[in-house]
Amino acid sequence: MTNLATNLLATAERRPDAPAVKLDDLVLDYATLLDSARRTATLLRERGVEPGDRVALQLPNVPAFPIAFYGALLAGAAVVPMNPLLKGREVEYYLSDSGARLIVVGEQMADAGREGAELAGIEAIVVGAAGPDDLPAEGTDLVERDEEDTAVILYSSGSSGQP
After folding, report:
1. Is 130 exposed, middle or buried (0-12, 13-18, 19+ CB in 10 A)?
2. What CATH architecture is 6-127?
3. Each residue of 22-32: pLDDT tens digit?
4. Res 1 pLDDT > 60
5. b/e 76-105 (16+ beta carbons within 10 angstroms → b)
6. What residue segments make up the domains of the chain, in order of their start?
7. Which of 1, 46, 70, 121 could cysteine-pair with 37, CB 3.0–4.6 Å?
8. pLDDT tier, 10 (very low <50, low <70, confident <90, very high otherwise)
């Protein structure tokens, strides 16, 4: 049994105070990144995400992305990263095609994310650049996955047709 998030667990144990993510003046060390990811995993589990589910991320390159990415992995989900510039109908396609259980979307693209989620019949969680504001106090432990299980589902850009 394994999980891609074990890489974060090992690094956070070995170098907890080392910088992991930086955006302007905001710096998250590995211990903080792991704590935020664990609490995000709890949030996702509270919203019904089960091991094997897919969690879509429509986020720019901000700390919220690795927090949600590792949170989904810790919860046992597969991650579906999406271009933050997608429009509502395009978001709906990715969500429906991947079978995403929910989408974590940045506040800058919240309208498109919400529209796509509504069309796909799933929940949208809107987050700021630093991640979810309403994180639970306790974090979820790592959900072990089989080494053959999917960790990430990547789509092409779709520049020459549907991805």
Report:
1. middle
2. 3-Layer(aba) Sandwich (3.40)
3. 999 999 999 99
4. no
5. bbbbbbbebebebebbbbbbeebebbbbbb
6. 6-127
7. 70
8. very high
